[in-house]
Amino acid sequence: MADARYDLEGGCACGAVRYRLTPPPLFVHCCHCRDCQRQTGSAFVINALIETDRVVVLKAALESLAVPTDSGRPHRIFRCPSCQTAVWSEYGGLAKLRFVRVGTLDDPTALPPDVHIYVRSKLPWVTLPPGVPVFEAYYDSRKLWPAASLDRRRVILG
Q1: Rounded distance, CA 128 to CA 45, Å?
Q2: How distant, in Å, are the alpha carbons of 11, 25, 48, 71 from that of 29?
Q3: How many Å separate Cα 11 from the centre of its chain?
Q4: pLDDT-based confidence at 69, cuts 50/70/90?
Q5: Is 37 part of any domain?
Q6: Among the listed residues 62, 66, 12, the one whose alpha carbon sits nearest the alpha carbon of residue 35
Q7: DSSP string spanning 64-93?
Q8: Whole-number Å distance between alpha carbons of 61 and 79
């Protein structure tokens, strides 16, 4: 899955923050949980899961803010200090894995969701595409993630 030439770039709305993903993400979630709806002000969020050291900050530093979650587990959102665009998050206190907001990519169409999660709280007018796995809550990544992504996750999580 890793390709030395692979990279996707993105940034915030004002251009003060720029980043690059190298290599492709481990997996891409479209999350419909109430926390994501509340924190984005939208129906869902699309996050690309990738190792923290594979996200290269090209321009500017981000600021983080801890936000409450329904689970009670830590969630830090990293934002541009100027325009406050949420660029990525860290969940559960795990700083080795980033959840990059796909909408901040220069080409957000490059990373369609691999899975839709927490559809128990999906807004009723949102129609899900056929052929993409759907889960009422979370799922077993060992059953869904590609082998190469599972290997990369083992390296960072031990």
Answers
A1: 13
A2: 19, 11, 6, 18
A3: 14
A4: confident
A5: yes
A6: 66
A7: EEE---SS---EEEEE-TTT--EEEEEETT
A8: 9
